[in-house]
Write a structure and sequence with these properties.
The chain is an alpha/beta fold. The protein has a single domain, classed as 3-Layer(aba) Sandwich (Rossmann fold), CATH 3.40.50. The chain has helices spanning about 15-25, 25-30, 55-60, 70-85, 120-130, 155-170, 180-190, 210-225, 225-230, 240-250; strands spanning about 40-45, 65-70, 90-95, 105-115, 135-145, 150, 190-205, 255-270. Strands 1, 2, 3, 4, 5, 6, 7 and 8 form an 8-stranded mixed sheet that branches. The model is unreliable at about 1-5 (pLDDT under 50).
Length: about 270
Amino acid sequence: MTHTPAYVHGYSGGEQTRLVDQATTLTDLLHTGTDYPPGSLVLEAGCGVGAQTVTLATRSAGATIVSVDISTESLAAARQRTRSARVENVRFQHADLYALPFAAEAFDHVFVCFVLEHLSRVGEALQGLKRVLRRGGTLTVIEGDHGSAYFHPQSPDARRAIECLIELQARAGGDSLIGRALYPLLVEAGLDDVEVAPRVVYVDASRPHLVDGFTRKTFTAMVEGVGDQAIASGLIDDATWKRGIRALYRTAEQDGTFSYTFFKGVGRKPLRG
């Protein structure tokens, strides 16, 4: 049986562009410290449209990356993205994270980025990933936390718009606040040597690439993309929604600031037990 997670952001061309903008803007922030030795076999679980795949594969050029996803459309986009980037150390495969088609201890390392937040059974997924990881191998997880966003000028309408996204994702079975829970989740999964570190994005006018790449094109675009759902579900009225989105874009002006925290966790599969 296939278990397709509910992806609250949808699969539109605009969403694909947003994911790539996010990956491009945050490459160093998210991927620093993640590189795998030559000869390693690495599972990228939930690769989506390949927004992180190119960076992952490029930074570990001597490793082989096996990137899997439940969406065939996303896999097609990911294949095209790696071809365009001339990345040749990636294999793509259709797979369900709750029923991975791999032998136990098949991979040296596992990498998961912006996936757990969309799953309704996170513990089960982590156990499946741990099963296919060799003893002593690492599991790296990167997640955001929408509750960590703060900005100037402050706006209750902007805060309400963000809360709509959090609620919609919860209704779909996910958890957009999952970043703050990574440490206990990885410990409960039975991993050793778990370390979690915040990766903070702070944006002001002195960092124009982040103003455009993160505040406008990543975070605000993400919130804006669920507007129809939020209004149709009765979570917010149209006028308040529009004010909230305007207020988020307002933080990208010359006197605005924006901050958001990602969390990156790494744990190791025990050598025994």
